[in-house]
Amino acid sequence: MRHTSHRLILATLLVSLTSQPGKAADRGALQRACFPATSLAALGSEVKPVKGAIGSAIAPPLTVALAPAVPLPAHLRGAIRRVELPKGQKLIALTLDLCEQPGEVAGYDGPIIDYLRTSGTRATLFTGGKWLMTHAERAQQLIADPLFEIGGHGWAHRNMRLLSGQALTDEIVNPERAYRRQRDALAARTCAASHSAALASIPPRMGLHRFPFGSCNKAALDAAADNGLLSIQWDLSTGDPAPSQSARAIADAMIRNAKPGSIIIAHANGRGHHTAEALPLAIPKLKELGYQFVTVGELLAAGRPVIAETCYDSRPGDTDKYDFLFSKRPISPGAQSNGWRPGTTAPVSR
After folding, report:
1. Beta pairing partners, 82
2. What is the pTM of this model?
3. CATH number of the structural domain spanning residue 32
4. What is the pLDDT of residues 43-90, one digit of tens each?
5. 47, 165, 192, 263: which has the highest count of C-beta atoms within 10 A?
6. How many CB atoms lie within 10 A of CB 79?
């Protein structure tokens, strides 16, 4: 009975936080009305992150009002690593992080998004709040796209294990404000005026959160949960932030390690090295093996989340190193300029 109750709570939460499948056609019409195919296409100039670029010090949109969040119940306050599915279902979720750190404007890896659209592959995009503000046009395109689900990834990719109080809350809530700013800007476009049903199907708030560096503690998990956000980890890392990780190696990792209910992490912010070349190798093969790509929200709705008490990459404690990445003392949240991510073998300078 308790298991059924938990499933009902999660199902109710997901209905309120994810777009309605029946409105997908409406979302597609909205996207076509506001964004011609030429405007959606990738631009090579957007891929590479730029340090010190104009707009790199953009401030959070603090004037954006948010509806009150509904705190999560105790059993959903951990880090979701994967989902246990009913026997015979072969669903997996591809997730792409769009991180942006202080002092930079991160990239937009358009070839990845173009391939997902061409192949009809659904994905969940974990977007930094700062990234949403510095990439306003791309953010609105992604929000309008029926293939994609949008989650939060901190304001400026700070290690939330080192934050507390209002600083921790701001890092979690400010991406919500940035998302709402771009959603409202999309709704205000003249092209959106006749697509009210599609706009209504776009969640007013994000319901998913991913911790930068895959690093958290109980206080950070509770802060996300208090703001109504499910904390999403992964059980399959592509290792794509490492420049030495080839497209073939990324594809092989996905094909070899995927299992029903897996959550895959990769990057689309200019730091997912060779991911654009790897996905056309991995995704057709996984589909051939019977896997169906869904969003994280759809995956959660199909089964039971596997929840850990804390965040980690492959084993508990392995992301605690980010507390001491630059020296023997804990790093200051605003000083994180190194771009290493879980799945690599050594820190990679950016």
Report:
1. 306
2. 0.90
3. 3.20.20.370
4. 999 999 999 998 899 999 999 999 889 999 999 999 999 999 999 999
5. 263
6. 24
Q: What is the pLDDT of residues 202-231, one digit of tens each?
A: 999 999 999 999 999 999 999 999 999 999
Distance CA 325, CA 336 (A): 9
281 in any annotated domain: yes
Q: For residue 136, what are the contacts with CB-CB under 8 A and spacing of at least 6?
A: 182, 185
User: CB neighbours (10 Å) of residue 260?
Assistant: 21
Q: Is 228 inside a domain boundary?
A: yes
Distance CA 167, CA 72 (A): 21
CA distance 104 to 131: 10
Helix-helix angle 24-34:136-144, to 10 degrees: 150
Of 114, 209, 108, whose CA–CA distance to 168 is shortest? 209
Domain count within the chain: 1
What Cα–Cα distance (Å) separates residue 60 from each residue in 131, 142, 173, 175, 180? 11, 20, 10, 8, 12
Is the CB of residue 319 less than 8 Å from the CB of residue 215? Answer: yes
Question: By C-alpha distance, which of 44, 84, 109 is closest to 266?
Answer: 109
Strand 104-105 with 50-51, pairing: antiparallel
Burial label, 5 (beta-carbon count in 10 A; 0-12, 13-18, 19+)? exposed
**Cβ within 8 Å of residue 221, ≥6 positions away:** 77, 78, 79, 231, 310, 311
Which domain, by its residues, includes 240? Answer: 2-39+73-335
In a domain, 207, yes or no: yes
**pLDDT for position 166:** 96
